[in-house]
Every structure is written in structure tokens, then in C-alpha cells.
Amino acid sequence: MHFRMKDMAVLMLALCCCLSGTQAQGNNDNQKTCCLSDTCSLAKELVSIGEKLGTMVEKQGTMGDNLRLMETRLQTSEKEVEELKRLTAGQPKVAFSATLRESGSGDTGPFKTPTPLQYKKVFSNTGNSYNPATGVFAATVKGMYYFRFTMMNNLNSTPNSVVCLTKNGQRLVSVWDTAGNDSHDSGSNAVVIPLELGDQVYVELQANRLIFDDTMFYNTFSGFLLFTM
């Protein structure tokens, strides 16, 4: 819009100057010359106003560009803050530890088929991924995990104990004690494994095997999330 006003003012200025020159040659009337001169001055003022308006509009355009740039930078900063929260304070927390018996003492097993052990006394269960009713840990976060378990054999002169850490029905690592005269042996094993969402991990007592526990809590099952993937 300011360009139209400026162009109109320029045309008026040119017309006035033309008329002024013509009148000066054909008529020496001072009053008419004065009017033409005033008109030309007004046209010059209009040109000046148009230029000023154009400058103001250009500045407004620049301010708008700067504002949009600031908005983009703010959005980028917000995304970076959210990513930082995810990597630090927003990191999922998953950890648990449990032992086999809540009270009393005695053997667990034997069972006719491989059976997940139910570690009923829970020391911690951050994230609630471990279910003491089933003995199964179910991954609620995709990531790399650490698991460890311990086993105490049954109290017979010839032990008969075999447990395996199992992922989705696949045996990973085991602890055995099925020979010898020492009936007070214990052992442990551990793994670091990747888990997808919904993967299940548990300790399985093998068929026709036994383990012993009492309030000293020899049989434990623990795990925690190392990092997400």
C-alpha cells in the first residue's frame, strides 16, 4: 500500500513541476504560481510520508521474521529439554529382588514338569515388573537387563537340584547339584540380556528336582534395567 501512495505522490510532484514551468512561461500571475508551489510542496511531503511508511512496513516485516525465528529456536530448545529429561530424570526405573519363602522351611518340588519358581517375599519391585504370584518378570521397557539368581540344594546326602534362568521358555543359564555327599551346597548364576516389550524372564525348577530354603533366604531372584534401547 505504501508503494502506491509513494508512486501517486511522485506523479503529482512531476505534474506540479510541469504545470509550474508552463505557467511561468505563459502567465506571471503570482497567486497561481504560489498555489502550484504549495501543491508541489505537498507532493514532496506525500513522497516523504510514503517513504517513511515503506520503511516502517519493512521494519515490521523484519520484526515478524525475527519473531518467527525466535519461535523456531524456542521449539527446538523445548525438544532438547524433553530429550534431556528422557535421558536423565525421565529414564524408566526398573529393579526387583525377591526370595523364595516368606516364612518356614522345607523343600520346594518335585514337580512333574519344569515349573517357574514363585519368589514370594519381595524386597523391592520398582516398576512393578515382577509378579510374586507367578514368579515371572515381564519387561515393560525395551532395554538391556541384568538378572541374577541363587540356589540352595535339597538337604539329602545325594542332592537333586537343578534350576535354570529362562526367557520366553528358552533356558539361558543354570545351576546344578546332582552328585556328591554334601547336602549343603549353594550356587548362583547371572546374565545380561536384551529384552523386548513383553518378554518374560523367570527361574525354572526342572522336572523331578528339589531345592531347600528357610528363613536364611538362600534362594533369590533379582534383576534391573541397565539402559533402554
Short description:
The protein has 229 residues and is of the alpha+beta class.
Overview of the molecule:
- The two termini are 57 Å apart.
- Strands 3, 5, 6, 8, 9 and 11 form a six-stranded antiparallel β-sheet that branches. Strands 4-1-13-7-10 form a five-stranded antiparallel β-sheet, with no helix packed on it. A two-stranded antiparallel sheet has the order 2-12.
- It folds into two domains: 86 residues, no CATH class; 134 residues, Sandwich (Jelly Rolls).
- With 229 residues, the protein is α+β, with helices and mostly antiparallel strands.
- Helix content is 36%, strand content 32%.
- Helix 1 runs antiparallel to helix 2.
How many alpha or pi helices?
2
Radius of gyration: 44 Å
How much helix is in the residues?
Answer: 25-40%
Q: In total, how many beta strands?
A: 13
**CATH architecture label of the largest domain:** Sandwich
Largest sheet: 6 strands, antiparallel
Which short descriptors sum up this protein?
single chain; 229 residues; alpha+beta; Jelly Rolls; 2 domains; six-stranded antiparallel β-sheet; five-stranded antiparallel β-sheet; 13 strands; C1q domain-containing protein; signal; secreted; C1q_dom; Cerebellin_Synaptic_Org
